[in-house]
Amino acid sequence: MKLNIFSLLLPLAAISANAEDIVISTDNTGLVFNVADDGRLYQKYFGKRLANPADYAQLPNGPEAYITNGMEDYFEPALHINHADGNKSTLLTYTGHKRSTLADGSQQTVISLTDKEYGDNVDLYFIAYPEEDIIKTYTEITNGEKKPIQLEKYASSLLHFNRDHYYLTQYNGDWIAEVQPSETELKFGKKELDTKLGTRANMFVSPFFQVALDTPAQENAGEVLVGTLGWTGNFRYTLEVDNLGRLRVISGINPYASAYTLQKGEKFTTPEFIFTLSGNGKGEASRNFHDWARKYQVHKGMDDRMTLLNNWEATYFDFNEDKLIELIKGAKELGVDMFLLDDGWFANKYPRHSDTQGLGDWDETADKLPNGIGRLTEEAKKQGVKFGLWIEPEMVNPKSELYEQHKDWVITLPNRDEYYFRNQLVLDLANPKVQDYVFGVVDKLMTKYPDIAFFKWDCNSPITNIYSNYEKDQNHLYVDYVRGLYNVLDRIQAKYPDLRMMMCSGGGGRTDYEGLKYFTEFWPSDNTDPVDRLYIQWGYSQIFPVKTQCAHVTTWNKQASAKFRTDVAMMGKLGFDINLHDLSADDLKFCQNSIKEYNRLKPVILDGDQYRLVSPYDGNHTSTMFVGKNKKQGVVFAFDIFPKNVEHLTNVKMQGLDPKATYNVKEICKSDASSSEVGNYSGDYLMTVGLPMFTTGRMSSRIYELSAR
Ligand code: DGJ
C-alpha cells in the first residue's frame, strides 16, 4: 500500500503528544530519540518500526545521540570542538525540534541542541522517505561564540546498536579491481573505513558499507544496515564496539588534516549520510537504495539513458578526424544513441598525444581535428546520433600552457619537488578563480558547440602535493575543494539542465550519491573484462541502481564470446567501446539485435526491481534478474563463469514475481540473434522450483524474458 503524507503524519502527531519521544520513521523503520531529565538527547530505539508508536514509551533510554568530546563518554565522539579558550569539551542540551514535509514529500525532523556554556548550536537533520525506507541525516554546527572555534571532528551521523553480534561488509579494491567485498565480525575496538585521496576518493574504498545485526549478512534474510556518505571527497566511517558490546557507527567527512575553523556566527553543514535498515537482507536494502536514488537523488534519475559507442579502447590517443567520422558512422550502424569522443582531442603547444601532456589546454588539436569538434557534431547529426565529449577539467599536466600561465592555480607544495600521479596535478578548486575556469571549460564548449549532449567528466589523480596557494588555512583544502567542485557543478546544472554527464575517475574513483545529483551515471571500472565485471557490477549494485552504472562491451577477454561480453554489459547502462572491425559479421548482427532488445527492455532492466539470484562469489555461476514495477515483465541473466566439466547443476529460483500470474518464458538474444520459447509457468513455480538456466559451458550465458499472459 502506498502511504500518503497524511497517513504518515497521523502516527507522528500522536507521538508528539509525548513530549520526550522524537520518532523518525519510514514504513518499516523506527528511529527514536528522547530528551531525559538532564536535558540531553538520547537514542532510544533504532530498529523495525513498532506497530503501535505508543510502545516506544516503554523503552529505556540508550546512549547519548550525538556524543561530544571531553565529557563522560570514553569512546569515539561524533563532535569535537576546540573552543577559543582552549577548552575541548562540548555539552549539548536539547532546545527544540521541528517537523515539516519537504517539497519532494519526504518528512524532515530537525532536532536542535546547544552548548549553554559556549552558545554553539548543533542541529541534527533527519529526512525520512517512508516508502523507500531510506533516511538521510546531516548536521549543522554554528559557532555561537565571540571568537573562532575549530571543528576537529564533525560527523554527519551517529547511530547506536545493542545486539549480540555485528558483521561488517566493506567494499574495497584498487584501480581495475574495484568494490571487492569482505566480511568481518566486529569485536571490541574500532574499525575505520576511510579515504584520504581527496579527488579520486573511492579508488581503494567504496563509500558504503553493510552491517548485519546478530547474524552474518544474507541476501534475503536478516537485519542489515546499509549506509553511505554523499560526499565527493574524503570520508570516514568509524565502527566501534565498546566495553558493553554496543556498537556505534559514526559517519562523516574524514577529519584527517581537516580541522575546520568557524568564524563567529559561521555555520558548517556536513554532508548527508544516507541509510536503510532492511529486515530482509542485503537484497531488500539494495532495492530501497535503487528506488530512492532513481526517484530523489540521481540527476534525471527517472529519465531514459542513452546507449553509446566510445572510442577510448578502440583508438586510445591514436585518431584523426577521418577515423572518428568512421566511428560515428559505426555508432549509427550499431544502432546506439550516441558517439562519445574520449581523451586525446585537445591541446596544441603540447598536443595530447599521450597522458604526459596537454591536460588543461582545451582547444582542439589542429592536426588531429582540423575542422574542430564542430565537424564531428555535424557528422553525428547527419547520422542521427548524439555527440558526447570527454573532459578532465579539474586537472593539469605540468607540460601544458595552463600550468605555465597559472601555476598559482595548481595544488602543489611551494618548497618541494612535485610528484605526479598519471603525470598530472590537481587544480585548486578551493579558489573561486579556478572554479570560474573549470566552469568555463564546459561553458565555452557548450557555447561553441551547443550540440554536445553529454560529457564524460574524468578525474585521474588523487590530490597530491597537498598545498593551496589560495587557502589561508591549509586544513580547509580537502573540504573546500569538494565545495568548490559542487559550486561548479551547480552552475553547470543551472545553465545546462538538459546536459547529461558521466562521473568517471580513472575507473571507479568517484562513486558517491552527492556526485550523482549532478551526473546521470558513473564509470565503475576501467576493467571491462566481462568475467571481472560480473563481480564489479555485483558489488556496485549493493547500493547503486544499474541505471547509473555504465557497462561497455570491449575487446578485453577475447576468449569470451561477443554474446557473453554483451550479456554482461546489458545488466548495466549499455555501451560499446570497440572498433566495429573487431566484430565479425555475425557478432555485429548479434550486437545490433541485443541493442534493439535492450532498448525494448530498458524499462524493466533500468527502472525495475533488481534481484541478485545467485552470487558469483558462491560458485561458478551467477544470475541476476530484473522485474518490472508492475510484475508483468521480467528479465533473467544467467552466466556460467568457469564451471567444472562435470558439475551438479541446480535450478535458478526467481524472485519478485506475482505468484498467481502465468509467465511466458523465452530465451532471447541467442548467439544467432534469435529467440526461442521455453514454456509457460506460474510465478509460484518460477520462484519455488525455478528453471535450469546454468550449464557447464565456460563463459557462457543466457537471457530469459518473462511476460505475464
Ligand atoms: C580513465 C578512464 O577511466 C578511461 O575510461 C578513459 O577515459 C581514460 N581515463 C582517458 O584518459
Structural summary, described in words:
The chain has 709 residues and is α+β, with helices and mostly antiparallel strands. It folds into three domains: 286 residues, Distorted Sandwich (Beta-galactosidase, Chain A, domain 5); 144 residues, Aldolase class I (TIM Barrel, Alpha-Beta Barrel), CATH 3.20.20; 99 residues, Golgi alpha-mannosidase II (Immunoglobulin-like), CATH 2.60.40.1180. The chain has twelve helices and 36 strands. Strands 5, 6, 7, 8, 11, 12, 14, 15, 19 and 20 form a ten-stranded antiparallel sheet that branches. An eight-stranded parallel sheet has the order 28-27-26-23-22-21-30-29. Strands 31-32-33-36-34-35 form a six-stranded antiparallel sheet. Helix 10 packs parallel to helix 11. The longest helix is centred in the C-terminal third of the chain and has 21 residues. The protein is globular. The N terminus is likely disordered. The structure holds (2R,3S,4R,5S)-2-(hydroxymethyl)piperidine-3,4,5-triol.
- The level 1 CATH classification of the largest domain is Mainly Beta
What is the strand tally?
36
- Summing up helix and strand content along with how strands pair, one would put the structural category as alpha+beta
Largest sheet: 10 strands, antiparallel
Low-confidence stretches: 1-18
Keyword list:
disordered N terminus, Immunoglobulin-like, Beta-galactosidase, Chain A, domain 5, alpha+beta, single chain, 709 residues, TIM Barrel, binds (2R,3S,4R,5S)-2-(hydroxymethyl)piperidine-3,4,5-triol, 3 domains, 20% helix
